[in-house]
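REQUEST ID: PR-0412
SUBMITTED BY: lab tech R.K.
PRIORITY: routine
TASK: structure prediction, single protein chain
INPUT:
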Amino acid sequence: MDSIIRIENLIFEYQRDETEKPVRALKDINLEIKRGSFTAVLGKNGSGKSTLAKNLNGLLLPTGGTIYVNGYDTKDEEHIWDVRQSAGMVFQNPDNQLVSAIVEDDVAFGPENLGIEPAEIRRRVDKALNDVNMGAFKGKAPHLLSGGQKQRIAIAGVVAMKPSCIIFDEPTAMLDPKGRNEIMKIIQELHAEGITVVLITHFMEEAACADRVIIMHNGEVFLDGTPEEVFSQGEKVRSVNLDVPLAVELAAKLREEGIDIPANIIGTEEMVEYLCQYK
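STATUS: complete
OUTPUT:
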């Protein structure tokens, strides 16, 4: 499996104004994201996770080092739209991403800017809306929709551009539990179709759905591995003020009581299923 994103010695600094010393938000990051993978990035506020996400899409450009997306250097202005078509981005607040007065026009906005033929745009818009279960709302006004519905429209707008990778920057942070579950189901379906997913989140249960978990701390990669590898290191995870998934916490307490819970059980549904079968 080849890499769709390659990060080499990435440094990013914020310059608030000319009188202040730059703030180094990312410190010498080296990572590769494999094509077709599902990577979750965790970290407290200020850890650098959202700054990393915006660098992956070319919204921010490295102060030092290089990021390659589908082979394109994000600093190469000639290929910035190739970068953004390869790696689409969905933000935390869908209102920041919706630009039109009608749902289908909003989803068509990206493909239109790519110069796609009208007939192909029509096909992409219909498919993208159906993919996120919003086909019946194509003639509606986005401002009349719920937060979860708006986020699904924002995702459809990115899907219609046919990116190889989608970066989700805390897409469920402003939603209720029902809305979060709906968006996570869509993310998992998109991944199952072959789209590379990078999910920035602070929900442990969402990260447990990924193939790989990266924990950021103070602008650096603190832990990196499968969900089982990362969340089994409970003390290290807690040392950077993060929790572990509820199922992992419960498993640790059950083991203390002599109940042998397999290490690969990190999700709530898996835990319920195992305990129901436990004798």
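NOTES: The mean pLDDT is 91.
REVIEWED BY: pending
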